Structures are given as C-alpha cells and as structure tokens.
C-alpha cells in the first residue's frame, strides 16, 4: 500500500528502495472454497462410515476371499496379455499406416476403422461364436490345400475368444497412439540418422521410438487403465474375471452393494499401481529433456 | 575428389537446381555463397543423396552417389547401399539435429562400428578435438547452441568421412557463439579435411576457403579464389549480393 501512494519507482532514492517490503496478495475466496470442499468431503466420509447399506463387514469378508483372488488374477491376465498383444499389433499397424505403400496404408486404415467402430461387447460375442462360422480352421497354402486341421471350438476357448477380442480391439487404439507418437518426433531427427547412415530398423528402434515414447506413454497408460476396466465386459462370455465373480457371489447372497464395492476397490487399487508404474516409466523416457 | 555434373532438381514446378557443375579437390575447402532460395542447401543435400537428382550425377572419389551405372542408365541404389555411402560423407545441419535422448558421447557413438572399447575411445577423442571431452555425459539440452553444433561436428567426424558438408552451421547460433564453431571448422580445414560449406560468414570464407562459388537461382554463376570472387566479382549478381552482406 505504501507503494501505491509513493512516487514512481524511478523517482525513489536508492536508500528508500531498501526500506520497502513486499506484501503478497491475499486470497479470501480461496479460503471460502477450501472450507466448502472440506465440509463436503467430511459429509461423504460420514455417510460411508455410518450408512449400514454399505455393509463393510460383508465387504471385508469377500475382499480377499479365494474366488475373488482367482478372479482378480484373470482380470490381470486379460489386461496384461491384451495390452501386450494389442500394442504389438499397434507397433505393426502404425508404421503400416505411415508407409509410402498405398496397399499397406489402406489395410491398416481399414483395420483401425473397423475395430474402432465395432463395440467391444459385440466383437466378443462374434469371437465366441466363431465355431458357428467356421467349424474347422486349417493351416496351409492360401486358397489351396491345407496341412493341419483344428476344431474351432477346441482351438478358441472362451478365454481365448475374450483375449482375442480385447487384443484386436486394443490394437486399433494402440496403432493410433503409436502413430501419434511417431509423427510427434521432429522429422529432422530421421534425416540426421539417415545422414549418418544408420540402418532403417535401427533408426526406428534407437532414434524414433525412444523419442516417440514421450508422446505415447501418457495416452498408452490411459488406454491401459481403460483396458483394465474393459475386461469387465468379458463377463458376457461367462469368464471368471472379477466383475463376473462378484455378480456370482451377490446372485447367491443378495449383497449387491458391498460386492460391487469389492470389485470397485480392486479396480481403484490396480489403477493406482499402474499410475505409479507410469510415473517411473515416463521419467525414464524423459531423460535428456530435464535440465 | 568430388564431381557434380549437370545436376538438375525440381520440387514440383519449381526448378531449384538448373544444371550444376562443380569440382572439389580432395583436402580443399569450398564455400558456397548465394542469396536465400538460390539452391545452396539443395545442392549440399544432393551430394549425400538426401535429395534425389532429376538429372545429372555426383561422384565422390569416383564412386557414383545414390546410383549404379549400367550402360547409359543410372539405377537408384537400395536404401541400405545409400546409407552405407553416406557414412563416407559427413553432414552438419543448421539446426544441429542432435539426438536429444542420448548424451553427447552416445550421439557420437550411435552410428559408429567396432568393438565397444575402441568406439568409446575414438568418440572421446573426437569430442576432445572439438573441445568438449568434459561434456561427454551431458544431454544436448544441457549444452549451449555452439556446444551442440560442435558435438554434431564430432559426430560427423567419428565416421572418418572423406568429405564433410556444412549446411549453414552457424546460422541458428547466437552471435557470441558463432566464433567457437568457426574455430573448430578452421582447425578441420587446417588438418586437410575436404569440406563444402554453405555459409553467410564472409570473413570465414575469405580466410579459410580455397574456392568460393556463387549460386544464384539454381545456377553456379561465379567461381574462384576468395580474392577473385569477393574483391573483384565479375558478375552483377555477385556484386549486388556482396554489397548487401559486406555492409
């Protein structure tokens, strides 16, 4: 306030400038907002503790129960295998879409278009009914004679169908995520690599991909969390992942809310673990960008 | 020896190089001058086949760059063979183009071949040569522009090229950092490195160049020693350009 009533800064004598103190601006509304937020949080916590409907004893009884643990394992398997196969597909589809060859481009484009269009649940039901379309599958010359024959039903279990569906679905999204990473890298980087005579594959692996990872990781982690939750959709194939399993239990006991909470809390915990993992992986690929 | 013969290059309808002939002796320094858009950079990029020519050819020590001659036809080489040829031709970019996720040392070793130990030693020696051995573990972001460009020069030298091409190596630098890069280039020239340099540093050209060529609208219109081209240019265009640069 002294500053406002003082003459312009330029007119201040040097010794006078030394005596002036800086007072930070006050934010009264910030305090009001903080109080409101705290009241709301307290109310929510109070409800969670006192409302008997949450039935925390049942929740605790089933949280580490054996069938739930096994189901959790299936959820994890589906998530990680789905993500692995999906991103493997994405690593093939993305360069195809960026290729100069029109055929490769259109195949990749069409794949991404189709698999992003079909709802996951519809696709899963298709794969589960593959045996209805093709009773046997065979390996051999395309359009020619086959050497090995398989019964479709014996080859594609319902777990296999679920994994196939998740991976194919995921590959379409992964392809776009990888592509966005690749195009985010300065083209001059590849030019420098080409000028140094670095072979094509090594350019991709050593120069392009590590830099693309910076753009890929946040969205890929997002997609992984999405996939974790999407695994709940495979309950339609009667696969014992966690969402299916809690339904089985509450179908028997009628305790719907606490069992939904069991699944919910596990999803939240797994997402938290993934977020921590994401933090460290991102830090690794950010080396060279920090000062 | 580098021979550029009858090189034409168009981007769409725009003809950037309209028949360039240029001979560069081994161990000599050639500076290419010319107004912007005259085709200097394109000419440089044609020499290591970063750009394909439409007509004409480039030879380095007798070896055709980017093509294989069969009768009267030139067949473009496979990418692998072109990459192999480029290892003999260093290229220094205006914007350095260091790999940001690798340290200075890793930038230098990235394209090198051979036993780990030897590669490491040689890379350090190259960094030493540009005065940056103490920055081996630094990432490009941690270096000044001048230091980054010197690492880029060390990276090009690490492959023992027969020839080093410099594409406006000091144009992206703050004025006070230009000197350190030119000093390194001066040392290279003194050591007998064959160099072709596109630059606007007339002082450097006068002092270091054996030959100065002047490019205008895709044609090489004047060529000679620094004294000939800079002090008594024959062509009006050269005179006009120099009067603007040598304020």
Automatic annotation (TrEMBL), chain A:
The keyword Zinc does not apply. One of its GO terms (cellular component) is ATP-binding cassette (ABC) transporter complex. Residues 68-278 form the ABC transmembrane type-1 domain. The chain crosses the membrane at residues 29-49, 69-93, 113-134, 154-175, 232-250, 256-281. Belongs to the binding-protein-dependent transport system permease family. It comes from Paractinoplanes tereljensis. GO terms for molecular function: transmembrane transporter activity. Its main location: membrane. It is found in: Cell membrane. InterPro entries: AA_ABC_transptr_permease_3TM, ArtM/GltK/GlnP/TcyL/YhdX-like, MetI-like, MetI-like_sf. Pfam families: BPD_transp_1. Keywords: Amino-acid transport, Cell membrane, Membrane, Transmembrane, Transmembrane helix, Transport. It is a multi-pass membrane protein. This is Amino acid ABC transporter, permease protein. SUPFAM superfamilies: MetI-like (SSF161098). GO terms for biological process: amino acid transport. It comes from the Bacteria.
Automatic annotation (TrEMBL), chain B:
Coiled coil: none annotated. Keywords: Amino-acid transport, ATP-binding, Cell membrane, Membrane, Nucleotide-binding, Transport. It is a peripheral membrane protein. Signal peptide: none annotated. The keyword NAD does not apply. It is found in: Cell membrane. Belongs to the ABC transporter superfamily. This is Glutamate ABC transporter ATP-binding protein. It comes from Paractinoplanes tereljensis.
């Amino acid at each position: 306030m002294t500053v406002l009533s003082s003459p312009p800064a330029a007119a201040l004598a040097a010794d006078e400038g030394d005596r002036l103190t800086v007072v930070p601006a006050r934010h009264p509304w910030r305090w009001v907002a903080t109080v409101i937020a705290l009241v709301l949080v307290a109310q929510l916590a109070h409800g969670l503790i006192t409302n008997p409907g949450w039935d925390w004893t049942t929740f605790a009884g089933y949280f580490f129960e054996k069938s739930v643990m096994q189901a959790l394992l299936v959820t994890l398997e589906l998530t990680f295998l789905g993500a692995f196969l999906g991103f493997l597909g994405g690593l093939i589809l993305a360069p195809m879409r960026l290729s100069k060859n029109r055929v490769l481009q259109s195949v990749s484009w069409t794949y991404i278009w189709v698999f992003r269009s079909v709802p996951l649940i519809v696709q899963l039901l298709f794969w589960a009914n593959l045996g209805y379309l093709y009773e046997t599958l065979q390996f051999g010359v395309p359009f020619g004679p086959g050497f090995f024959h398989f019964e479709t039903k014996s080859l594609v279990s319902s777990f296999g169908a679920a994994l196939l569906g998740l991976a194919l679905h995921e590959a379409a999204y992964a392809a776009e995520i990888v592509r966005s990473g690749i195009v985010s890298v300065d083209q001059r980087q590849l030019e420098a690599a080409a000028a140094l005579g670095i072979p094509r594959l090594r350019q991709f692996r050593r120069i392009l991909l590590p830099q693309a990872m910076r753009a890929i990781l946040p969205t890929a982690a997002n997609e992984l969390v999405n996939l974790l939750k999407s695994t709940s959709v495979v309950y339609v194939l009667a696969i014992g992942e966690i969402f299916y399993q809690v339904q089985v239990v509450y179908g028997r006991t009628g305790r719907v809310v606490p069992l939904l909470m069991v699944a919910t809390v596990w999803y939240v915990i797994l997402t938290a673990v993934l977020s921590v993992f994401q933090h460290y992986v991102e830090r690794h690929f950010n080396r060279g960008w920090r000062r | 020896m580098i021979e550029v013969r009858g090189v034409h290059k168009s981007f769409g309808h725009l003809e950037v190089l309209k028949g360039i002939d240029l001979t560069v002796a081994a161990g000599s320094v050639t500076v290419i001058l010319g107004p912007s858009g005259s085709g200097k950079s394109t000419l440089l990029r044609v020499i290591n086949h970063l750009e394909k020519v439409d007509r004409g050819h480039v030879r380095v020590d007798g070896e055709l760059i980017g093509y294989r001659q069969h009768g009267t036809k030139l067949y473009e080489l496979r990418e692998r063979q072109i990459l192999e040829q480029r290892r003999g031709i260093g290229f220094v970019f205006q914007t350095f183009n260091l790999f940001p996720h690798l340290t200075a040392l890793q930038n230098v070793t990235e394209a090198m071949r051979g036993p780990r130990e030897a590669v490491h030693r040689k890379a350090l020696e190259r960094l030493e040569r540009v005065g940056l051995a103490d920055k081996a573990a630094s990432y490009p972001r941690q270096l000044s522009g001048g230091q980054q460009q010197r690492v880029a020069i060390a990276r090009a030298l690490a492959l023992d090229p027969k020839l080093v091409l410099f594409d406006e190596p000091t144009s992206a630098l703050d004025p006070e950092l230009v000197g350190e890069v030119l000093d390194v280039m001066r040392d290279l020239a003194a050591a007998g490195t064959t160099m072709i340099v596109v630059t606007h540093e007339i002082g450097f050209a006068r002092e270091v160049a054996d030959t100065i060529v002047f490019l205008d609208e895709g044609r090489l219109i004047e060529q000679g020693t620094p004294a000939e081209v800079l002090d008594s240019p024959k062509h009006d265009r050269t005179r006009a350009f120099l009067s603007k640069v040598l304020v």
